[in-house]
């Protein structure tokens, strides 16, 4: 290798990015020597390297089949003449993290970015799946600026309970609600607990993981048709092998994530988000990803897209089918074909075709029970909407496809819970002053709170109302909600209470007006009174003292900016 190659990025494989010992030839000799201890031949060591950034962990059930998938990726890389080298990064197992996985998404993105940059690789496969892992990988890879391709775990398969089909996690919530209402006994809920998540893979419905997988495909960072292949299907392994082959073909190309995730591509992502009735969390993740390539997600533009995009996919939590059914029905290509006239067809994808090419190449067969035609949609407009007003100057999100339209135009009395602890302590109190017409308000659960914006926006119906048969009522918070949840729920209120947002000024008995038609949410309290309450607010209440807690507290942004860290939001240089 020439001196020139050594000092520029033309160096390939293990010769790339040498450890600095002050003598480059010594560094290369030492690296090869240590790599040889892993049993590689010199012929292998001279190959360019495809890194496989994977997030397998004993604390991540969704990724338990990753060893098998990694082997398949390696086959594809080797067949294409490169050397596959896997490396672990932080894994975010959704239900194993406290206080919430979102808090650690940025940490994982930093891990992914820095390990791609610091280790010798020429392109990278990003292997993730569980909710926050795919956005973390896309954010990190976007910042690292190396050619990258996403590969996902694929969805879990459904199981059965007394003849009823079950899949995590919409059915988790449905059964829990029935248990709380007394319709399911202790024995019944124990049996369901064992059957809700019975294979590897990500949650079986259109939750956040499935939504982000669908969006990764729609914006062009994954091969066509790859989002919905079940985790346990042999096609998933074939897709892993193919992804390895493509990753090897990316070596030396300029197909960095920034080239694929353009403004138009992200807009395609928003269209698909609406058409699949996707998770509210995806808006936060898209905003964070956009920020990494120097773009923003404008919530007003999102509303325009939502108002002109029908929901076409009939999946839980808003419909009836599961992700495995979407795969069998034609997958994301079938959805994109219906929306052809609304998409930017000239967007390039990581596999070399344009989005238009992919649509042309897709199998024309489609199961209309799962993917509806554009002229007979599940609903006429998109599932998600941003609402604005004096209660949410920077916006809030409602998943109208999962909400009760009878509650869309309503004024209600606020029943306020000042924290998650307050909510847990009082929501089921028999003497709680609450009626079905009230609005439940949860404060101090936003990104800047100690709670770090958990999926607690799905505020339970107070026990006394649940027992009386109430299934839904208006609920609002600065928290998030699981993509698998449903109800008339206003989320991501920004700015949040902990940063001084108006949601923190609401008091019991205040009147709040929600209008989905006008995209508005208003606190019907005079500005003078709000000013008085603002002056009474205690100053800093958060408790971070050291380490990542402190980094998070000092740098996390609001929901409309994707809850990324301020210092990470810029295009790669
Ligand atoms: Fe991993 Fe739902 S718990 S995707």
Automatic annotation (TrEMBL):
Keywords: Iron, Iron-sulfur, Lyase, Metal-binding. It is an enzyme of class 4 (lyase). Transmembrane segments: none annotated. GO terms for molecular function: dihydroxy-acid dehydratase activity; iron-sulfur cluster binding; metal ion binding. Residues 369-563 form the Dihydroxy-acid/6-phosphogluconate dehydratase C-terminal domain. The keyword Iron-sulfur applies. Its EC number is 4.2.1.9. It holds the Pfam family ILVD_EDD_N. Gene3D superfamilies: IlvD/EDD C-terminal domain-like. The keyword Transmembrane does not apply. InterPro entries: Dihydro-acid_dehy_C, DiOHA_6PGluconate_deHydtase_CS, ILV_EDD_C, ILV_EDD_N, IlvD/EDD_N, Sugar_Degrad_Dehydratases. Residues 47-357 form the Dihydroxy-acid/6-phosphogluconate dehydratase N-terminal domain. Belongs to the IlvD/Edd family. PANTHER family: HYPOTHETICAL DIHYDROXY-ACID DEHYDRATASE (EUROFUNG)-RELATED (PTHR43183:SF1), HYPOTHETICAL DIHYDROXYACID DEHYDRATASE (EUROFUNG)-RELATED (PTHR43183). This is Dihydroxy-acid dehydratase.
